[in-house]
């Protein structure tokens, strides 16, 4: 069973920009992609801002259409960097997407077209007729099929959703398949396009979102004393994963390696994680052990860092338990301060940023932390990017319902 899994290509789309280099420049500069929403009316809503990808002309598309378009963009970029563009991809597609759901505007359209405005009637319209393909596209399951067809991946696409850990779960799934010998390479995509009215209202009802409507760019405040919730956002990332020896044989340059994966669920609550951080500790410690390392070997943590009062406190506690006396000496950064919380895509996006930190030897800042929380005694990279000698990164992704995944990425294969 091979342990070394090389990352040979990456692609990135966020509210900041399209493309890895454009995003990296904006991240290092401490730019914010959070702004007032213009895609739909926001008057009367509790939250009127988010991290919308409004620079790709996707506003007229439903969430599934945005996921597809962003997924195509990041996959094409990753394959080009890996030297695998213009050919069928000899491996499976592993895709992280939002839960399967039809948005209310499309539900109303289906009901209008149906002879009987019932569930059975709407299914009849979706299953046949001249307008059915457009409506079937609102079911996220078709996104994987279309991406697999576009890039010629092998076998049925794997589409999964583990809440905010989905992107990292997709990477773990691909890594385990390569390690087992099920495949030699895999294309991993995380794509999130659910910045729409219904989702904004639902998260608002959970009191999970920041309500700084008068200061969107300053709303995402991970690890700050005055943090008041996360900022909903969208985006996508792709990674080409390969057996390290095969990447070397074809002359591909590994950007980094996936060294370890750790996963743990706490079964504590439908939306909340256990405040004792026990499952998060297991995920982090499991990833480090899987990499054959110790906590002392980790040079940097790309935190989940949502900016909610509970999550940041819990993640800090977990890092203190994992790293012990060294917890305050490990530099930590939270990308969500600039791009918002990209939900299903977050784990993949932050893995790409972690790869860039390893490749470029510099850590993006955590912005909007003018008032540090005195209860969080961590070395948060704040204000400006920080040059650093980094060989290993622990990237954390924690999801609603206690679904937690941590990844160890490194410059060395073993």
Automatic annotation (TrEMBL):
SMART domains per UniProt: PKS_KS (SM00825)
This protein's GO CC annotations: cytosol
Alphabetic keyword roster: Transferase
MF terms in GO: 3-oxoacyl-[acyl-carrier-protein] synthase activity
Pathway: Lipid metabolism; fatty acid biosynthesis
Domain of life: Bacteria
CDD domains listed in its UniProt record: KAS_I_II
Ranges where the Ketosynthase family 3 (KS3) domain occurs: 2-411
Gene Ontology BP term (one): fatty acid biosynthetic process
UniProt record similarity statement: Belongs to the thiolase-like superfamily. Beta-ketoacyl-ACP synthases family.
The protein, known as: 3-oxoacyl-[acyl-carrier-protein] synthase II
Lineage of producing organism: Bacteria, Pseudomonadati, Pseudomonadota, Alphaproteobacteria, Rhodospirillales
């Amino acid at each position: 069973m091979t342990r070394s899994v090389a990352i040979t290509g990456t692609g990135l789309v966020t509210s900041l920009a399209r493309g890895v280099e454009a995003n990296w420049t904006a991240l290092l500069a401490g730019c914010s992609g959070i702004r007032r929403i213009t895609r739909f009316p926001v008057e009367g809503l509790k939250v009127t801002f988010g991290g919308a990808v409004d620079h790709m002309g996707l506003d007229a598309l439903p969430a599934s259409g945005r996921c597809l378009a962003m997924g195509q963009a990041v996959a094409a970029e990753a394959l080009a960097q890996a030297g695998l563009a213009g050919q069928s991809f000899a491996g499976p597609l592993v895709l992280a997407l939002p839960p399967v759901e039809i948005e209310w505007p499309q539900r109303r359209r289906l009901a209008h077209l149906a002879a009987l405005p019932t569930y059975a009637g709407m299914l009849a319209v979706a299953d046949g007729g001249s307008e059915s393909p457009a409506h079937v596209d609102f079911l996220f399951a078709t996104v994987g099929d279309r991406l697999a067809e576009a890039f010629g991946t092998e076998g049925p696409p794997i589409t999964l959703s583990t809440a905010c850990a989905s992107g990292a779960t997709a990477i773990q799934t691909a890594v385990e398949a390569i390690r087992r010998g099920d495949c030699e390479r895999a294309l991993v995509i995380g794509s999130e396009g659910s910045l729409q009215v219904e989702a904004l209202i639902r998260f608002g009802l959970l009191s999970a979102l920041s309500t700084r409507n008068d200061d969107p760019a300053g709303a995402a405040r991970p690890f700050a004393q005055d943090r008041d919730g996360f900022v909903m956002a969208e985006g996508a990332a792709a990674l080409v994963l390969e057996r390290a020896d095969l990447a070397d044989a074809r002359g591909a340059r590994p950007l980094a390696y996936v060294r370890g994966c750790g996963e743990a669920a706490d079964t504590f609550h439908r939306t909340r994680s256990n405040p004792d951080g026990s499952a998060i500790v297991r995920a982090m410690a499991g990833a480090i052990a899987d990499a054959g390392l110790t906590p002392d070997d980790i040079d940097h943590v790309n935190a989940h860092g949502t900016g909610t009062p509970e999550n940041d406190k819990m993640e800090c506690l977990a890092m203190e338990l994992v790293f012990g006396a060294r917890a305050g000496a490990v530099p930590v950064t939270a990308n969500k301060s600039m791009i918002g919380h990209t939900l299903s895509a977050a784990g993949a996006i932050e893995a790409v940023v972690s790869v860039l930190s390893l490749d470029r030897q510099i850590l993006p800042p955590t912005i909007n932390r003018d008032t540090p929380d005195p209860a969080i005694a961590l070395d948060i990279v704040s204000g400006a990017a920080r040059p650093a000698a980094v060989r290993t990164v622990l990237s954390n992704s924690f999801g609603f319902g206690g679904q937690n995944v941590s990844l160890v990425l490194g410059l060395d294969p073993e």
